[in-house]
Design a protein that fits this description.
Blueprint: H1 3-9, E1 13-17, H2 22-33, E2 37-42, E3 59-63, E4 79-82, H3 90-93, H4 95-116, E5 119-125, H5 148-167, E6 171-176, E7 178-180, H6 192-202, E8 206-209, E9 215-216, E10 218-220, H7 221-233, E11 240-243, E12 250-251, H8 252-262, E13 269-272, E14 281-282, H9 287-293, H10 301-312
Parallel strand pairs: 1-2, 1-4, 2-3, 4-5, 5-6, 6-11, 7-10, 8-13, 9-14
Antiparallel strand pairs: 9-12
Helix pairs in contact: 2-7, 4-5, 6-8, 6-10
Length: 314
């Protein structure tokens, strides 16, 4: 239990879309730990039931797709955390499904929030900016997404703003940067840290796409959960804000060496062709989130990597 949030969510009923996934399941755990009841909606394309606690009477798990689910069947909820989304790389292969889930699904969740008067915290992405003209990136930076995923996430934000202005929906948008942590899917499509850790522990080569000088602002999932709960508690309706890991740029080459060293591995670094839609530099200016909801990251990259490596060794 976190006394900072217990009084805010205790006794309330929440919907978490994508709640069996990486980030969503951590939000679910935090809500349950602080006395809330939670309905999880997930299509299990990436989520896993094993990510969720067993036997909690305040948890209801539903299998369904945000594109087709009958939200009215849920009755009233007090709050919604919208984490349902398709990932970046598959969006190049199937942009129509990407926009249907990320934009169309968000519109359906917003309509449900409008009908039941629920407060909504919506997950967006730093991918909406595209290749930055200045770093760290503030929310005033031009929006020039270079992937179908980034475009669909930007469209989802516009739906949120329209539902706020025209229908009065209480919605806050959080633009996540590069999130990592326990329960993250280990695949070529989902997160460099789990891939590097898995290979380093097995003594396999660490594959770096391109020259490895591209940089990221890595964000621990524990800080993402804090940001979501802070956003729900705060009066920041209609706001869009970056959620980053402190604005420190870490190159992929630096990360590979750091992971190898922390794992005690002799894995060599090998280079592969660049990935499509791979942004060169990505680091967040999170000062708006600090001012509006009191968010500051608490987990350093070294602390987060140490924790994740211990988790991966289990």
């Amino acid at each position: 239990m976190d006394t900072q949030f217990h009084e805010t969510v205790e006794g309330l009923r929440f919907l978490v879309t994508g709640g069996a996934g990486f980030i969503g399941s951590h939000i679910v755990s935090a809500l349950l730990d602080n006395g809330a009841s939670v309905v999880v909606l997930d299509d299990f394309s990436n989520g896993r039931e094993s990510n969720l606690p067993k036997g909690n009477p305040r948890l209801e798990l539903l299998s369904g797709d945000v594109r087709t689910f009958g939200f009215d069947s849920l009755g009233k909820v007090d709050g919604i955390f919208n984490e349902a989304a398709r990932a970046l790389l598959p969006s190049f292969e199937d942009p129509l499904t990407d926009v249907a889930v990320n934009a169309g699904g968000t519109a359906r969740v917003l309509e449900y929030a409008r009908k039941c008067g629920a407060k909504l915290v919506h997950a967006s992405s730093g991918s909406v900016y595209g290749n930055p003209v200045s770093v760290p990136i503030s929310e005033d930076h031009p929006m020039r997404p270079i992937s179908p995923y980034g475009v669909s996430k930007l469209a989802s934000e516009y739906y949120c703003l329209m539902y706020k202005s025209e229908f009065g929906v209480d919605v806050t948008v959080l633009r996540y940067f590069n999130v990592y942590g326990p329960r993250q899917t280990i695949s070529e499509e989902m997160g460099v840290i789990p891939i590097f850790v898995k290979r380093a522990l097995a003594g396999e080569p660490l594959r770096v796409n391109g020259d490895g000088k591209q940089t990221r602002d890595f964000l621990n999932v524990a800080d993402v959960v804090r940001a979501n709960l802070l956003a729900f508690r705060a009066k920041a309706s209609g706001s869009i804000m970056n959620i980053g890991g402190g604005g420190r740029e870490v190159s992929i080459l630096e990360l590979a060496k750091k992971v190898s060293g922390m794992c005690g591995s002799r894995s060599e670094v090998v280079h592969a062709p660049p990935k499509p839609g791979d942004i060169r530099r990505l680091a967040a200016d999170s000062s708006r989130a600090r001012n509006l909801i009191g968010y500051t990251p608490t987990v350093t990259i070294d602390e987060g990597l140490k924790s994740y490596i211990e988790y991966a060794k289990r």
